[in-house]
Amino acid sequence: MTAGALTISTVLWIVGRIGMDEPRFSPWLGPGMLLSIWAITLMAVTLLATARSRMIEPMFGGLDRAVRLHRRLGPAAITLVVLHVLMYLPPMLADGMSLGDILVPFWSPQALTFDSSVLWALLIWTGFAYVRGLPYEGWLSLHGLLGPIFLGAGAHSLFVGSTLAAFEPLRFWMWFLLFVGTAAWAYRVLLYRWAAPRYRYRVEAVDRRSHDTIDLVMRPQDRRMIYEPGTFVFVRRPGGKAEYHPFSISSSPAERNLRVSVRLVGDFTRALANAQTGEPVEVFGPFGSFTPHRYAHHRRLICIGAGIGITPFLGMLRFEMTNDDFRRIWLWYIVRDGDNAPYDAEIRDLVLRADSWVDYELWMTAQRGRPTAADIMAAAAPFDDFGIMLCGRPEFVGDLVRQFLAAGVPRERLIWEDFHFH
Ligand SMILES: Cc1cc2nc3c(=O)[nH]c(=O)nc-3n(C[C@H](O)[C@H](O)[C@H](O)COP(=O)(O)OP(=O)(O)OC[C@H]3O[C@@H](n4cnc5c(N)ncnc54)[C@H](O)[C@@H]3O)c2cc1C
């Protein structure tokens, strides 16, 4: 998707340039303009990727992947904007403008006030967004401001760019990108609660599984959500702050009640532990591509869940009770020690009753250290027709993914979720 959008932008810009009746090609302005077109393209794709729409997420291979992609595209777009400005500076200064005119809003009657304001808005936004220690909700609210900045940047390109002015198809494409990015932003930031796939549930039970883990069991009030095992939902408690927190589903789609298993780490999750039976809960989703059914061609599955990262595998195992799609599965539950393995007993019970053949191992890092890719590959040998699903904290998952890749495992066989949306 990203490569396709960038290709269209580039081809249209080249064709537009060729058609322009210009005495000479400026090595600064021409490429500088292309950089801004790329920046708008990447911003539009980024906004689309984070729209949290069920219709759009398949274009990115699932919302979890889309969010991972946006982490790379966002900084790339900002870098392109800065480069674009730097490339425009020499010819504009040569034309007699001062730095103040170009970069400082209201500097003089000729100052490029609108354009420099958009630039400053983006730079200040970037400063806040990448500042360490910003609470997640503050960071998320900050992302809500990206829409107006994107619109400002788009307006700047459309009304200033000479190639855009001269070449109708490129202008149309830019309008299209502006529309897509703005619509995605409006859906996510302004209309989500009403327009997104929302299901009304009630708290059926809050089951304490360990000192820091609970199961939130919810009963549908009307429509029941249909989902694939391994997917996740956003949970919102009406009446409280408008927070949407993602949790993997740890129940089976065959069950009437919906369950999420939650580690108590901060305000929202700790408050969830005190939710009252009968309390309304809104559930948005399901989202994500972390589901074995999308990888039906892998008949042998290696599943590694670290800590609370075991939750999607609980849902998958529970589904195994009713699923006759036989697979060979190896499952590792990686925990610090026995006191931090609240789902061990449940998994052992499920493994006994599962339709597929499951080899299960509880791996305690306090005794054995972290498992390596080599440990896993040796245990599941011969290592041929398989897919590897990993879930847990970003550092753990990232480290194991790197090890598998270094050991020669093809990237397309690795499927991971890292419970991280930053
Ligand atoms: C796809 C996905 C699936 C997840 N599944 C589970 C699960 O099954 N069980 C579980 O216990 N946890 C899961 N998490 C993590 C869970 O969403 C956070 O632990 C929870 O939102 C923390 O909120 P808090 O206010 O209690 O903690 P805080 O102290 O506010 O946040 C702790 C960390 O959680 C993350 N976080 C906080 N708020 C949000 C939010 N609204 N959206 C996204 N991330 C946020 C941030 O990284 C933050 O640094 C999942 C996360 C993702 C992205």
Description:
This protein has helices spanning 2-19, 29-49, 63-94, 99-103, 113-129, 136-143, 146-160, 162-166, 168-190, 192-195, 267-272, 311-319, 344-353, 365-368, 373-379, 394-406; strands at 198-210, 213-220, 232-236, 245-248, 258-263, 280-287, 300-306, 328-335, 357-364, 386-391, 414-417. It has 422 residues and is α/β, with parallel strands linked by helices. The strands form two sheets. It has a six-stranded antiparallel β-sheet. It has a five-stranded parallel β-sheet with strand order 9-8-7-10-11, sandwiched between helices. β8 (328-335), α13 and β9 (357-364) form a beta-alpha-beta unit. α5 (113-129) packs antiparallel against α7. It is elongated, with a radius of gyration of 25 Å. The structure holds flavin-adenine dinucleotide.
Q: Percent range for helical residues?
A: 40-55%
Overall average residue pLDDT:
91
Low-confidence regions: none
> How many β-strands, per DSSP?
11
**What is the N-to-C order of secondary-structure elements (H for helix, E for strand)?**
HHHHHHHHHHEEEEEHEEHEHEHHEHE
The CATH architecture classification of the largest domain is Up-down Bundle
Instruction: Indicate the proportion of strand residues.
Output: 15-25%
Ligand inventory:
flavin-adenine dinucleotide
| Straight-line distance between termini | 21 Å
Structural class, please? Answer: alpha/beta
CATH class of the largest domain: Mainly Alpha
Q: Remind me, CATH topology of the largest domain?
A: Four Helix Bundle (Hemerythrin (Met), subunit A)
Computed Rg: 25 Å
Main sheet: strands, sense, barrel:
6 strands, antiparallel
What sort of overall outline do the alpha carbons produce when their principal axes are compared? elongated
Count the DSSP helices: 16
In spatial order, strands of the major sheet run: 4-3-6-1-2-5
